[in-house]
Amino acid sequence: MKACILSVIAFEIAGNLPSKKSKPSAFMMFVNQWREKSANDLSLNDAIAEVGIVWANMNLNERTPFVQSAIVEKQKLQNKKNHYEFRSPENSILKIAIQHLTIFAILHSWSKILIQYKAD
């Protein structure tokens, strides 16, 4: 029971932390630009399927602007992450606490299972 309560507390704390954003790739930058220009009505999966063929036929010079913009976006995300962690170090402490609480909850659950297994 205590482990369940600790897990709930950990997930409530985790809900207050910012979500992790994925780093954009050059291909995804190209997909997003292509969708804006020509195919707004396509889903992301359909756009990726169509654009993949175009991307495969592009040479290095044609891909370079997208690679550069992906590098810039990755750097922006890294700077934002560094600023956030520097601005509020308690979030790093919260992340560690959540990890420990989650591990404790898992170990506590396993210990109950093992005790019941030994009793049988």
Automatic annotation (TrEMBL):
<dbReference type="InterPro" id="IPR036910">
    <property type="entry name" value="HMG_box_dom_sf"/>
</dbReference>
<keyword id="KW-0539">Nucleus</keyword>
<dbReference type="InterPro" id="IPR009071">
    <property type="entry name" value="HMG_box_dom"/>
</dbReference>
<feature type="domain" description="HMG box">
    <location>
        <begin position="20"/>
        <end position="85"/>
    </location>
</feature>
<feature type="DNA-binding region" description="HMG box">
    <location>
        <begin position="20"/>
        <end position="85"/>
    </location>
</feature>
<dbReference type="GO" id="GO:0003677">
    <property type="term" value="F:DNA binding"/>
</dbReference>
<dbReference type="GO" id="GO:0005634">
    <property type="term" value="C:nucleus"/>
</dbReference>
<keyword id="KW-0238">DNA-binding</keyword>
<protein>
    <recommendedName>
        <fullName>HMG box domain-containing protein</fullName>
    </recommendedName>
</protein>
<dbReference type="Pfam" id="PF09011">
    <property type="entry name" value="HMG_box_2"/>
</dbReference>
